[in-house]
Design goal:
Radius of gyration of chain A: 19 Å
Strand content of chain B: 15-25%
Radius of gyration of chain B: 21 Å
Distance between the termini of chain A: 34 Å
Structural class of chain A: alpha/beta
Shape of chain B: globular
Largest sheet of chain A: 7 strands, mixed
Order of helices and strands of chain A: EHHEHEHEHEEEHHH
Largest interface: A-B, 58 and 80 residues
Number of strands of chain B: 19
CATH class of chain A: Alpha Beta
Helix content of chain B: 25-40%
Structural class of chain B: alpha/beta
CATH superfamily of chain A: Aconitase, domain 4
Largest sheet of chain B: 5 strands, parallel
Number of helices of chain A: 8
Distance between the termini of chain B: 50 Å
Oligomer: heterodimer
Shape of chain A: globular
Strand content of chain A: 15-25%
Chain lengths: 201, 470
């Protein structure tokens, strides 16, 4: 996994709350057995018209979205299903971070395991970002995982929470499975102590 | 004396294998359920790393999401991409030694239906699956939650997960429901109260006389939709009903092991004086049969109550959200859903496809006809349920009424298997999500109970189930 540290990224706002994973990537695109190639179907049903052409009203199809890496979205982003295809699609499109006032639990966990930063800010900061993104279609923000800060256009630096362990993994560019594998002796001891309570075979 | 603990805390404590400073707890997983959609990339991950599945005997796979529900599905899966995904699960299960409840086998069905049915879901267990409705298994007093595909790989490889301890809430369902108000209405009632993000970060424990009075199947319906309130999991303390449901199931403990298990399970309910981080309560007696009117499961209302007016909401964001939902649904604020003409009725899904759900629908459909303007589909949750329903003569009742009787699977809950709405159609559905396009691009969903769905099928419009039950 690539390391995630510090970057400056262009903002694209999606001022909608409770964006569910069925909007991020509709279920009919989950028949794939790969992780790659999902970016083209990101927000599919908002992004394309019945004819298959781009919906010009949808923000990702507008020039202002070109090259954006930071999605700023309404509260409770990523609610609904556990599909990891959601962060895969967001990253496949080119995003590196999503900023909102809150994220659904499973979605947030999935993001952190793929190097897509879920950045939680307070309501005032989110409003400030939405307003700034409306005023400047080339708005950039700086995001620094090391210091857990996002630097707003006003120059104000806002801290965001990340759990210590995910942060360490992202900065080092290592996935979490390695850590679990190191725990296997403890897992074996646990299994021996507790015995088998079920057998699916 | 030790500190009083909740049901959740007892299970959590029992399953922490290690907890080092600066890292989440390593949580042992007793049961890992697997399906075709969220597992292929995880198996590929194992292959790439040269790792085996650590505990195939704690793992069970089936296919449910992308499989058709047509009678000839053993011969034909016309969607080539879905066919490849289904075939990939077979390959993965063979290669890694994972037991598979395949199409055509008597154990196949929706993953959250077959776990309890086989008795692999047990009180006190940790249960995970790459599916957010894993919360269903909490009905047995298990800690059960959905995980992403990376975590599926973690569990396949190590039988553990890295987890930060969630916070807890107790949800008291106070009072008794009137006739026609079911488990589905209870949970839709709660979610309409707390909203789709109200449970974020929380494990909910459902309590109260209305929960105790529910059958195990009703409890599964309630726990199933915990995720729709944003909760990490939902759970219900096990009791005699739980044990009675599990007794004699193929994978449940037998003989002396059974007695020991029940003894253990009786220790699970929350201790007196145990505390929760938050408390919610639902006034059950005041609930009507519930329906959703919007595009998330929190946008629900009693059948005779008016759809809320965006102007009546204080917050500008909430107003915009409701306006967007009503635009998509093409609904008028201020009017009730009762009497709204519909096109499709779907009875099925991991929420409401169990035998009692089918019996409830059959009770209303018996001797009646599905309205001419309505396509009604009844989709059993598993092969076993299909067999049981057949023994009880339910398919004849559905077919005589003019409803379709299909093969077991997720069907029109997720619209990735050929069963789907066409743009603009209205559907009264017993499933769990009314997100835009969830049941087919442009389709519009009213979530409701099997009773409401069956009554609406008969009337050809949203109906009040209370008129059909005595």
């Amino acid at each position: 996994m690539a390391t995630v540290k510090k970057f400056t990224g262009k903002v694209v706002p999606l001022n909608v709350r409770d964006v569910d994973t069925d909007q991020i990537i509709p279920a009919r695109f989950l028949k794939t057995i790969d992780k790659l190639g999902l970016g083209k179907n990101l927000f599919n049903d908002w992004r394309y018209l019945e004819s298959g052409e781009d919906n010009p009203d949808f923000i990702l199809n507008q020039p202002r979205a070109e090259g954006a890496t930071v999605l700023v979205a309404g509260d409770n982003f990523g609610c609904g299903s556990s599909r990891e295809h959601a962060p895969w699609a967001l990253m496949g499109w080119g995003l590196k971070a999503v900023v909102s006032t809150s994220f659904a639990d499973i979605f947030k966990g999935n993001c952190l395991k793929n190097g897509l930063l879920p950045i939680v800010v307070d309501e005032a900061t989110l409003e400030e970002l939405f307003a700034a993104a409306e005023a400047d279609h080339n708005l950039n923000v700086e995001i620094d995982l090391e210091t857990q800060s996002i630097i707003l256009p006003s120059g104000k630096s806002v801290e965001f929470p990340v759990d210590e362990f995910s942060k360490k993994c992202l900065l080092a560019g290592v996935d979490q499975l390695g850590y679990l594998q190191q725990q296997l002796p403890a897992v074996e001891a646990y299994e021996q102590r507790r015995g088998d309570l079920v057998n699916t075979l | 004396m030790s500190q009083p603990r909740t049901l959740f805390e007892k299970i959590w404590d029992e399953h922490v294998v290690a907890h080092e400073p600066g890292a989440p707890a390593v949580l042992y997983i007793d049961l890992h359920l697997v399906h075709e959609v969220t597992s292929p990339q995880a198996f590929q991950g194992l292959r790439d790393r040269g790792i085996r599945v650590r505990r195939p005997d704690h793992t069970l796979a089936t296919m449910d999401h992308s499989v058709p529900t047509t009678a000839n599905r053993l011969q034909v899966i016309s969607d080539e991409i879905a066919k490849k995904q289904v075939e990939q699960l077979r390959i993965n299960c063979r290669e890694f030694g994972v037991p598979l409840a395949d199409l055509g086998q008597e154990t196949q069905g929706i993953v959250h239906v077959i776990g309890p049915e086989l008795g692999v879901t047990q009180p006190g267990f940790t249960v995970v699956c790459g599916d957010s409705h894993t919360s269903t298994h909490g009905a047995f007093g298990a800690l059960a939650f959905g995980i992403g595909t990376t975590e599926v790989e973690h569990v396949l490889a190590t039988q553990t997960l890295l987890q930060n301890k969630p916070r807890t809430a107790v949800v008291n369902f106070e009072g008794s429901p009137v006739k026609g108000v079911t488990a589905k209405d209870l949970i839709l009632g709660l979610i309409s109260q707390i909203g789709v993000g109200g449970g974020t970060g929380l494990v909910l424990e459902y309590t109260g006389e209305a929960i105790r009075a529910l059958s195990m199947e009703g409890r599964m319906t309630v726990c199933n939709m915990s995720i729709e309130g944003g909760a990490r999991a939902g759970m219900i303390a096990p009791d005699d009903k739980t044990f009675e449901f599990l007794a004699g199931r193929p994978k449940a403990p037998q003989g002396a092991d059974w007695d020991a298990a029940v003894e253990r399970w009786r220790q699970l309910p929350s201790d007196e004086g145990a505390t929760y981080d938050e408390t919610f309560s639902v006034d059950v007696a005041s609930l009507e049969p519930m329906l959703t009117y919007g595009t998330n499961p929190g946008q629900g209302v009693g059948v005779s109550q008016p759809v809320p007016d965006p102007a009546s909401l204080g917050d500008a964001n909430e107003q915009a959200s409701l306006r967007k939902a009503l635009d998509y649904m093409e609904l008028e604020a201020g009017k009730p859903l009762l009497g709204k003409p519909i096109d499709v009725v779907f009875i099925g899904s991991c929420t409401n496809s169990r035998i009692s759900d089918l019996r409830a629908a059959a009770e209303i459909l018996k001797g009646r006809k599905v309205a001419d303007n309505v396509r009604a589909m009844v989709v059993p949750g598993s092969e076993k349920i299909k067999k049981q329903a057949t023994e009880e003569g339910l398919p004849e009742i559905f077919k005589a009424a003019g409803a379709e009787w299909r093969e077991a699977g997720c069907s029109m809950c997720i619209a990735m298997n050929g069963d789907q709405l066409t743009p603009g159609q209205y559907c009264v559905s017993t499933s769990n999500r009314n997100f835009e396009g969830r049941q087919g691009k442009g389709g519009r969903t009213f979530l409701a109970s099997p009773l409401t769905a069956a009554a609406s099928a008969v009337e050809g419009k949203v109906a009040d189930a209370r008129r059909y039950v005595s």
